[in-house]
Amino acid sequence: MMSDNPSPILYSFRRCPYAMRARMGLLLTHRQVELREVVLKDKPQSLLSYSPKGTVPVLILPTGQVIEQSLEIIDWAITTSNGLLKPPTPEQARLIAANDTEFKTALDHYKYFDRFPAQSQQDYREQGQRFLSQLEQRLNQQPYLFGEQISYPDIAIFPFIRQFAHVDLVWFEQADYPLLKSWLTSFLTSENFMTCMTKYKQWQTDSPVTNFGLTSEAFL
Questions:
Q1: Which single residue of 61, 70, 128, 133 has CA 20 to 30 Å from 181?
Q2: Model's pTM, two decimal places?
Q3: Is residue 1 in a domain?
Q4: Which domain holds residue 179?
Q5: Tens digits of per-residue pLDDT, 117-144?
Q6: Which string of DSSP letters, residue by residue, matches the chain?
Q7: Sheet hosting strand 58-60, strand order edge to edge
Q8: 127 with 47, same domain?
Q9: CA distance from start to end of the chain
Q10: 57-102 pLDDT, tens per residue?
Q11: Whether residue 94 is found in the same domain as residue 185
């Protein structure tokens, strides 16, 4: 069914941090996909047929293989390209795991605190700040989380820091994380992020093909 389409298909939602990091990973590995923008309240049947859980991102390869996790999409892009990203080291993987578990839980409770009345919004924010402080300490040593260049953890983590910041942007702008804020700004003002956050209309079965990203040949 997929053999006539030379490009993988990416079901995505612009503001989802998981989809965001997948798109950034594809950009930095110079992979091109057919992007299908999803409205989460009106998910296309084709997405559900490939991935019944109905979350994004989901990547459909020309072989018909379905990749349903954002980090696995980045892993696939790395192994099939000559782009800028490399697989994470064990230490990098641990930091990403901390982001995706403890910090993501604190973020969700902070953002949707009215759903979790056991503690206050400030309590949940303070829980998330433990991770922010950890990143701030890392950035005291180098401009990116693991050195002088962007690496896998930067791409995997920054969309969630962006989401945390936007819960209360006034507070975040005044918070004592100067290095973290500078690091985040470097991504949010980058050309890749502008491309990543391009607005697309909701995909329909009769929509024209939307190509996203660049093939490696574009960089030769």
A1: 70
A2: 0.93
A3: no
A4: 90-190
A5: 999 999 999 999 999 999 999 999 999 9
A6: --TT--S-EEEE-TT-HHHHHHHHHHHHTT-EEEEEE--TTS--HHHHHH-TT--S-EEE-TTS-EE-SHHHHHHHHHHT--SS--PPPHHHHHHHHHIIIIIHHHHHHHHTGGG-TTS-HHHHHHHHHHHHHHHHHHHTTSSBTTBSS--HHHHHHHHHHHHHHHHSHHHHHHSS-HHHHHHHHHHHTSHHHHHHT---PPP-TTPPP-EEE--GGGG-
A7: 66-67, 58-60, 9-12, 32-37, 211-213
A8: no
A9: 31
A10: 999 999 999 999 999 999 999 998 877 789 999 999 999 999 999 9
A11: yes
Contact 103, 127 (CB under 8 A): no
Locate 8 and state its tokens: 């993988």
Q: Is the peptide bond before 57 cis (omega within 30 degrees of 0)?
A: yes
- CB count within 10 Å of CB 75 equals 17
Antiparallel, parallel or unpaired: β 32-37 and 211-213:
antiparallel
Inside any domain, residue 3: no
Q: Among residues 30, 89, 28, 23, which one has the least CA distance to residue 58?
A: 23
